[in-house]
Specification:
mainly alpha, globular, 271 residues, 74% helix, single chain
Amino acid sequence: FASDSTKSAADSTRECKQLLKTMILGVKTVVWSVSNSRMQPHPLAGVQAMKGMSEEECLLVARLVKNGLPCFVIYGTGPDASPQEEKEVLDYFAGVFTVLDLRNFKQVFELQMPTLYERVRANSGMLTILQHFLANSNVSRPFAEILLSLLVGKLPELSAAPEAEAATLLRLFKLVFGSITLFPENEPVLRPHLATIVTSALRYASASPSPAHYYSLLRALFKSIGGGKFESLYKEFLPLLPSLLPGLIHAHARARTRALREVLLELCLTL
């Protein structure tokens, strides 16, 4: 009986996985259809029909993000857990939202970015969704704007958070920086945050007993804007140099580990 019960549970899990995948593909068609229809205003309103979703429909899609994400736990647990299958279905799920009108896409993820971040923090496999958006030319810029605004607000957590959480936060920063390299039109996303990231990273690093993540963040930032491709970012960066280089040299003199000294030396040479 025990073996029959185990077999039945495994069969049920496989059926749920297949059902979820089928539902996602169907929902994508529905979202595309609604998003590409035109809302007809009242004849006396005197305005043109507007493409995209209504406010109520946007809230419904936002609920789809919030309530859909927990469903994917089934792909990462149990004896049949498959990271490849999880990645595939998360790509499908992310694809549901890339068919949204950009205005609606921003509305949905301005609401649900904190929820998405918490899911990524709990399960790094969820990074697939963020990678999908940042690599999609249609939605990369608005998504990078929303994500970077959230990440900058969490800079103090880089030293206080547990190691795994801090590593995830650093990886998210790197993904946003990478999207700017991939799509140069994303450059304006970073510009208003550049000075804040640099000065805050130095300030928090100087007061932290474990500053390595802050210097790794600066290294990733410098690499992403290097090569002379981003003129406006250089203009934002130049006023920071007089205080930045002495600060890094001072930190290098105080560094206690060889690995940290090497990172700081690389930063100084990059400047």
